[in-house]
Amino acid sequence: MAAALVVRGARVAIVGAGAAGLAAARAVRDGGYKATVFEAATECGGTWNYGDIAGKSSMYENLRCNLPKEIMRFRDFPFRETRNSFLGHQQVHEYLLNYAMTFSLRDLIKFRTKVVRISPSTESAWSVTVTNDESGTPASSEHFFDAVVVANGHYSTPNPYLPPGASRFQVRSGRTVTHSHLYRTPQPFLNRRVVVLGAGPSGTYIFFAVFRSIYERLAFYSCRRSIPKNSLIRCFLFFA
Predict the structure, then answer these.
(1) What percent of the chain has a predicted confidence (pLDDT) above 70?
(2) Is there a single domain that holds both residue 116 and residue 193?
(3) What is the pLDDT at residue 230?
(4) Which pick of 55, 103, 132, 233 has the fewest CB atoms within 10 Å?
């Protein structure tokens, strides 16, 4: 990729319009290259896009950041002044939308366009095949670029691991096992017995959110350590 970028005006594909993709798009364009951003959702923001129709966001309704906004910001683009340093996901998404608008990045983005294949090409350095469903019917097309930046994040696909016995729990009892990636609100767990497996940030938050909603039943919190630490990346909800 470095060799291709020696030539100003080189064509650069950027996969994803989340925080990393937006920053890459700005840097690529301002560096004198031709940037094209492919985004599967209808709006930029990546995992912070709670309304993502592509189903890639892991946001839930009342999520708040566990990092202060002062260390989450882009260096030259501060968050709006707020009394609270720990923002809700809506405020972070608004920040990214404002970033894209302020630096005129939206014109570089092809929304509802999913990258399905990237491969070396004889016509250019890379061939990028995408599908676009703006018309309601997915249409496939191939594009050629001198370089590709992959900024699709790592929160869009849940960890497929299931604890031993999980399948039997579902099949024999008709009960449900779900991953925290699919969690949105505590309402589906109202008055049900729930166990949350995993003591990372998602597991801790979801446990307390569900606990407050199931007044007449029980919620159980399962983790490896007596004091939760951010070491477990899996969170599963079993409920009956």
Answers:
(1) 80
(2) no
(3) 45
(4) 55
pTM: 0.80
Helix (H, G, I), strand (E, B) or coil at 228: coil
Same domain assignment for residues 128 and 217: no
pLDDT tens-place string over residues 87-112: 999 999 999 999 999 999 999 999 99
Q: Provide mean pLDDT across the span 224-231.
A: 49
Q: Are residues 214 and 178 in the same domain?
A: yes
- Copy the structure tokens of residue 85: 């340093």
Residue 161 within a domain: no
Report the C-alpha gap between 135 and 157 in whole angstroms.
Answer: 26
